[in-house]
Amino acid sequence: MAKKSKQTKTLPIYILNGPNLNLLGVREPEVYGTTTLPQIEKMCADQARRHGLSIVFRQSNREGEIVDHLQEARTGASSVIINPAGYGHTSIAILDAIQALAIPVIEVHLSNIHRREPYRNHSYVSKGATGIVMGLGAQGYLRAVDAVAEILKVSK
Ligand code: CA2
After folding, report:
1. Which atom of ligand 1 is nearest to the CA of 86?
2. pTM value?
């Protein structure tokens, strides 16, 4: 009789995107590039697949909804990649939700927030993040997927 396989599927990476990121590629391409959010989703799904992983990709303009998605990640995700967008600079609620997670969290910013206006130089989210990728444009999301894959491999 064939042995029962004990292999369990790794939970998806939650990739969460904050306010206005739905406008990517439509406005301010000189700051944020020309790649749209649906294109980034496809790129991330392809990259995750190369690592044998899957993603759940979300965007919200509402702080509370992002907190809900982070709470859902407590049991539904292997890891979180989050571009909190403007909320990174303001939201203790999002930081609290991140600090309630026991899984790796990578913060992503398309731009290098330290080279920008002073009010963008600080991120509350960074205090709860395992790691941060910034200034690499849409490629930064892929590097975050790579980082998560490496961390999950090591902690398996
Ligand atoms: O560099 C990043 O990824 C940011 O998180 C993007 C946020 C900004 O508030 C952060 O300081 C840095 C802005 C996202 C809004 O994206 C837009 C895209 C096109 C047009 C207008 C906004």
Report:
1. 9
2. 0.95
